[in-house]
Every structure is written in structure tokens, then in C-alpha cells.
Amino acid sequence: MTGHxxxxxxxxxxxxxxxxxxxxxxxLPVAAFxxxxxxxxxxxxxxxxxxxxxxxIGIHWMHRKELTVN
Length: 70
Description:
Helix content: over 70%
Number of helices: 3
Distance between the termini: 22 Å
Radius of gyration: 16 Å
Order of helices and strands: HHH
Shape: elongated
Oligomer: single chain
């Protein structure tokens, strides 16, 4: 990648993770699948949502934390 693309990506990441909205946005698909598990009465899907949701939200939280430190 060229230099200007890397700078553009860094600026775009700071905009995306600048507010708590990105973390809240990460919880929306997790909540949707959790509600789907409840609606479908599927405990296996519910357990998978909890395990994968912790990782998904955690990744977004760490990205936000890295950008606020730098």
C-alpha cells in the first residue's frame, strides 16, 4: 500500500472508533442473534452467541482503546 492510503485508513479508523458508537454497533448483531436464539428456543445458538459475542465486542473495544492511547 502506498503512504497516502495508509494515512487515509488511519484517519478513517479514528473516525469509526472515535465514539462509543462503534462498540454499540458491535453489540447490535450480537443482540439480534441472541434474540433469534430466544425466539427459536435454541439454547445451542444462544450459547454460541454469548461466546462469540464476547469476542466480537471485545475486539471492537480493543480497537477503540488502541486508538485512544495513540
